[in-house]
Amino acid sequence: xxxxxxxxxxxxxxxxxxxxxxxxxxxxxxxxxxxxxxxxxxxxxxxxxxxxxxxxxxxxxxxxxxxxxxxxxxxxxxxxxxxxxxxxxxxxxxxxxxxxxxxxxxxxxxxxxxxxxxxxxxxxxxxxxxxxxxxxxxxxxxxxxxxxxxxxxxxxxxxxxxxxxxxxxxxxxxxxxxxxxxxxxxxxxxxxxxxxxxxxxxxxxxxxxxxxxxxxxxxxxxxxxxxxxxxxxxxxxxxxxxxxxxxxxxxxxxxxxxxxxxxxxxxxxxxxxxxxxxxxxxxxxxxxxxxxxxxxxxxxxxxxxxxxxxxxxxxxxxxxxxx
Length: 323
Ligand SMILES: N[C@@H](CCC(=O)N[C@@H](CS)C(=O)NCC(=O)O)C(=O)O
Fold this sequence. Notes:
Blueprint: H1 3-25, E1 42-46, H2 51-63, E2 68-71, H3 83-88, E3 96-99, E4 102-105, H4 107-117, H5 128-143, H6 146-152, H7 156-180, H8 185-203, H9 205-226, H10 240-255, H11 264-274, H12 290-322
Parallel strand pairs: 1-2
Antiparallel strand pairs: 1-3, 3-4
Helix pairs in contact: 1-8, 2-4, 2-10, 5-10, 6-8, 7-8, 9-11, 10-11
């Protein structure tokens, strides 16, 4: 196991316990308008449009469970790198599920937890062979480098902002928090390694082509399963395989990185999944809502923009007086 990974897993074990206690004690960044309703002590730490958070929202909706929502802004404010969140989720990614004080990280583990814990239709089949098939599809979609493909898909000024501002900002934010919380240094080092790999993958055309090939292979596989007219990806009932495919299709539409009409059976399946009675259409994002994104980014960008404008104005006034 590489050093950073080893430290990360050791750190995770120590910190998940500490983080759980801390999460129960202090509840920072709570904004009342973000709390939907929680009848049974379930909280999702997530963010609008996040691929992995959408899986969790969809699983909860299928089970009919209403959860409290806590926004962790993974955009420019990078709240997921803040020490309070690192103590909750040592990999500093969303989502995290909190249930009666227990913290569950990693969307695949969360999906299994939701299925095992809450009543409602089973999302994993009982039969071992079908279950294995579902698990394989979940793992395959999980392995797709959606993050890298999403960021690589940015064009023009956005791509420039990504390379010159956003990615360097990530490393700076991680180093800043590492200095402020030295006890979390192994976690921050692992995250800094991850950001370096992320940047490296986006800079390598060969790596991006490989990620793209893996995506196409997965889409071909899903299409082949549905081509004969099957209602569901595995067996004759809805499962986590269908859930994962639904979120993947929404993501591809949102990013415009794959043409769903090239996969007619999958496209049809997606339409049927969206028509399910509990489908949370406001959570499953197939086109980014610019107004919503602006509201998310504005509190971070506008004060900085105002500071720059004020500084430039002051400089102009000073210079005009001097000459
Ligand atoms: N394996 C993790 C991956 C989670 C993940 O990558 N989450 C993304 C959002 S979909 C994230 O937090 N990105 C922010 C970052 O990496 O800084 C899971 O399935 O929960």
